[in-house]
Amino acid sequence: MEKIASFTIDHLKLVPGLYVSRKDHIGQETITTFDIRMTNPNEEPVMNTAEVHTIEHLGATFLRNHPEYKDRTVYFGPMGCRTGFYLLLAGDLTSKDIVSLMQDMFAFIRDFEGEVPGATAKDCGNYLDMNLPMAKYLAKRYLSEVLEGITEERLLYPES
């Protein structure tokens, strides 16, 4: 059985960044999958489920309400390894194309105040597993350490 593309990336060389993971074609449409890598794989602790869940709710809310990207957003959700998120957007895109979108999204999460959207028993299957302060901290860290002044090293997967 062939390894899927994401398992062929050398995670020992991978640093936090914003990468194109893959491009798929469905009919005439290209779907670009982005790897939003927030922590250094195998080097630092993974994110806990509560903050991952909170970032998921806030990020999805931001994207599904964005004037330009709401109709292009296919999916936003966590990686199973809890080192980042996947974002699927309609269109043939590069990482550079969405840097400002990600800066705006992570600023939204960093600055969010109030009740997390969808964090009720009626709206979510695990609504008690949320940690807004930690989600804000992680968003601030990713924004300042990765997205602001992002370099090519953090936009393209490392060579194997």
TrEMBL record:
Enzyme Commission number: 4.4.1.21
Domain of life per record: Bacteria
Catalytic activity: S-(5-deoxy-D-ribos-5-yl)-L-homocysteine = (S)-4,5-dihydroxypentane-2,3-dione + L-homocysteine
Enzyme class: lyase
Example of a GO biological process term: quorum sensing
HAMAP family: LuxS
Matches recorded under InterPro entries: LuxS_sf, Metalloenz_LuxS/M16, S-ribosylhomocysteinase
Record-listed Fe cation binding positions: 53, 57, 124
Cofactor-binding details, from the entry: Binds 1 Fe cation per subunit.
Keyword RNA-binding: no
Listed name of the protein: S-ribosylhomocysteine lyase
Family affiliation: Belongs to the LuxS family.
Gene3D superfamilies from the UniProt entry: S-ribosylhomocysteinase (LuxS)
GO MF terms held by the record: iron ion binding; S-ribosylhomocysteine lyase activity
Lineage: Bacteria, Bacillati, Bacillota, Clostridia, Lachnospirales
Alphabetic keyword roster: Autoinducer synthesis, Iron, Lyase, Metal-binding, Quorum sensing
The gene coding this protein: luxS
